[in-house]
Design a protein that fits this description.
181 residues; mainly alpha; globular
Length: 181
Amino acid sequence: MSTSSMISRMLPPIMRHRKRAEPPTLSDEQLDKLLAGLCSYPDDASAKDARISDQNIQDITIYLKSLDEKTSRAGQAAWHLRPRTYAILRTINRLSLMDTFIEKGQNDFLIPWNEKTLPMSLFEKEPDDCTRETFFRVQHFYLTKFNVKEVETEGGEHQSLGVSGDNYFKKIRLLGQGGFG
């Protein structure tokens, strides 16, 4: 059974048809089950080339937004702004590091991290030395299908999204009406 069909079956019928951008009202237990299902790393050899879908990342964002509202996390401290970091840390059982990543100004745009770009200070309170290496090993599953850093490269290739670009942006206000002046 796919993750999305499993999640759909867990939601009450009215929520299955809800507008996707609106965070659903779920119990803590429901949120935890949904997020656990979405943040499941493949155990087999295919994990090397596997990638999480953009839809699953959007779903993680929606459920994290609901979690942020329940825990009163707002602004830059909100977890829903870093769904990939959350998913990686959840996968390696180190969610306790999420606030440390936020305090140090780390965000999803910095993925993929490497030995030089991921500060050692993020892991200084960890009881074992392999957390950082495990982080590096798991992060590839949560990357987008295209290289996000190429977006800012002058002369880089054009990138196309599989869905409407509006799915990736929050409307703040109307910029204009197409007139002159």
